[in-house]
Design brief:
With 210 residues, the protein is mainly alpha-helical. The protein has 11 helices and no strands.
Length: 210
Amino acid sequence: MAQPTPEDPPGLLEMETSPQTKNYRANRLKLWQLLQQKHKESRETAIKHGATEAAADEYASRTLRGEINIFIDELLTHTRKLEVLNFIMAAPREWGLRGELLLGADPLVPSLIARSYPVAAWVDKIDALDLAVAADAKGWQAWLGARLDALGEAGRAASEHVFGAVEHIGKGLGEGVGAVGEGVGRALMIGVGVLSIGAVVIGGIWVLRR
């Protein structure tokens, strides 16, 4: 079992074997698997409607990017600082720009889930991340950047790994949207968007945060 640090909330490690922790981790793992499945289904649907594989990948990723960011942000605040820092550097480069990169990087996320808790592990207050902010490139970068700042010097030093070079920040998240729209079709984009799991993920997190 990991040793406590001065920054750990009192009693955090005692929660390791609690039913609440077990249920929280099981719930988060199911949500993560659901995100992976929805990304796969969105991609397959786009291809069936005539999109190229590249366009289908971009479409599926853009459709779920906000939900992925919300999920990861919540998970990071429920995991001890050392584990978070290890995760940040082990994750694919520029994952802060393209959260969908994490979907294919397992067991990275499940391993982090296995070390998470049903309470905040290193922040005084967990602010709810709005889906509009999570899905917006600049909004999400500012939000995640604030999380890195709160982790201290090590977090700030990881910024280039998380976001890439400064000149690349803000690029890539919205590019290719026109091509994807042409390949998939406006009706499909609206339909699949409605079927995305935003409400499930946000709802699940909201219930735990009440």
